[in-house]
Amino acid sequence: MIITTTGENIIISAEKIDTNNAKQFDAKNFCDYWLEGFKPYATENEMAAIRRIVDKIPVRNTFIHGDYHVSNIMLQDGEMILIDMGDSALGHPIIDFVGMALVYIFARKNPQTLYKIAHVTPEQAEIFWNVSLKTYFDTDDDGLIAKYTGEIVYFAKLKYMWGIARTPVGIPADIKKMLIEQAKKDLIDGVDEEYSILKDI
């Protein structure tokens, strides 16, 4: 119940943020930064294909936190407040959903890492993710949530690749290359697909 309520409240709090006070920085620039991070692992043609993925993201005037997940949310006098606002900007909400997916979808595969980051179990992370999306999109349609989750995970691989590429230690070189190559292949294979979440958000 606590996880469910927290997921609902976090989404509701984000929707109330006044974009008039946000700095005029296009959150899409995050994607450019992610692309630069794995340029050494891709050919020019591969980079051009992945660039088309970024170009699919529409321009929006929505407040973006930049690193939106439970570890950057605190309680103060019973009210949820966002912290670590250095990367806040204006842009498309897919950027913040990407950050959430890295925690609640990708990290869920490693319970120890997940607990270290978010202090939740994989089961709690799954509940939190589903409740957050159902609240944001105002739907109880599990099929639609599964579809949106798949589309968010697709875009999250941009940041995932960047994270793996910039990790200096802790990942054996052959594993690192395998993870980057698989994520890169998934991205390029999906470049011509239509992603309804980009217009439905």
How many distinct beta strands? 4
Under the CATH scheme, which architecture would be assigned?
A: Alpha-Beta Complex
What is the helix/strand order?
HHHEEEEHHHHHH
Instruction: Calculate the mean pLDDT score and round it.
Output: 83
Question: What fold name goes in the CATH topology slot?
Answer: Aminoglycoside 3'-phosphotransferase, Chain: A, domain 2
* Helix amount: 55-70%
What fraction of residues sit in β-strands? Answer: 5-15%
- Low-pLDDT parts are none
Gross morphology is globular
Per-chain topology:
Layout: H1 2-15, H2 28-37, H3 44-55, E1 62-64, E2 73-76, E3 79-82, E4 89-91, H4 94-106, H5 111-118, H6 122-137, H7 142-166, H8 173-189, H9 197-200
Antiparallel strand pairs: 1-4, 2-3
Helix pairs in contact: 1-6, 2-3, 2-7, 4-6, 4-7, 7-8
Description:
The protein has 201 residues and is mostly helical. It has a single domain (2-200), classed as Aminoglycoside 3'-phosphotransferase, Chain: A, domain 2 (Alpha-Beta Complex). The chain has nine helices and four strands; from the N terminus they run H-H-H-E-E-E-E-H-H-H-H-H-H. The strands form two sheets. A two-stranded antiparallel ribbon has the order 1-4. It has a two-stranded antiparallel ribbon with strand order 2-3. Helix 2 runs antiparallel to helix 3 and helix 2 (28-37) crosses helix 7. The longest helix is centred in the last third of the chain and has 25 residues, at 142-166. The model has no long low-confidence stretch (mean pLDDT 83).
